[in-house]
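Fold it.
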Amino acid sequence: MYTAYIVTFCAAWRLPRRVRHLAAALTLTTSVATAFMPVGAQAAPEAAPQTGGSGSGDQQRRVNAIIDELDRIGVQMDQLAEMYAQANNDQEDLVVEIAATEKRIKQKENELAAMQTDLRAVALKSFVSGGMSNSLSSVLSSTRGLTDSVSKKYLTSVALNAGAGNTDALQALIDDIAKERSALQSQAKKASRAADYAVERLKAAESLASTYTQRQAEAEQQLGTLIRSERQRRETSALASAQAEAAKFKGLKFTNVTPPSSRAGVAVKAALSQLGVKYVFGAKSPGVAFDCSGLTSYAWGVAGVGIPRVSRMQYAALTKIPTAAAQPGDLIFSYNPISHVGLYLGGGQMVQAPRTGDVVKISAVYWSRVVGVVRP
């Protein structure tokens, strides 16, 4: 009944929390249209060395400004993508809840129908024997609207004549069905609002992705070689810094830290098997597309360990460990609020599904952006 309706709407916080997310998302979108305010959790990129005359220095500053702006838009896209993934997850949960409620209603209606059949037989027997009128006929013909029409004195009279005691069980069943139907209506409304919210977040994320793609194309057209060179320099610098930081972790000892799972290696292999697969908002389709938390939940699912679908839920639900204790297979979370997750490989590197326009790949861990590490 309602399931097909909701599946249509569901084409991974409950509603009050979504309202707060909507306000945050509107702020993000507005900031892109104006000044692209920097995100607090994002570390300032290392400035490129400047050589040559003032013209060369001005050009390098322009390159840095463009890349910094693109990075800020990218972080904002991550935040919108997280909201969209959460909305999708909520829709899926509501579909399951609605199906379960419909199943309970069906079971209770079957029970009620059986009780009605029994009472009809009692009423007929009483009518034939002349000991009772057939006043029950109108109240025993439907499973709907019985709360208003059932006359307990008649039912009790018939039940007593048949030795059944009373009709409390019948009335309780009628009340249960009414409550379940009310719950079903509430779930359907929530699912409808969740679907609308998901559509809004997806539109906002796609709009921001379009802005990102346009700015990047313009930058490539104007300063293509310099842009690529600066990005490569930053990536090389980031990897060196990540490896140096990871090397410091090796000598550290920790107590009361959950040991790595024996399935961590399987999760790592599963994630690496998806290298080159494109990023798509809210996706979790092996060989086709992933978002960041879709990749991590897929990888650990292959390892036989079920974890939540969305990055913030993964962080909230799984065992937290010190950042310096990170081992291959652990999940690395970035930004505040959390809007990105990757699977740690060791040596300062992780496999991740970065964002729109990119693919699943191995990247350096920006430790300064890391807000937490968990161990499935």
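The chain has two domains: 2-224, 250-375.
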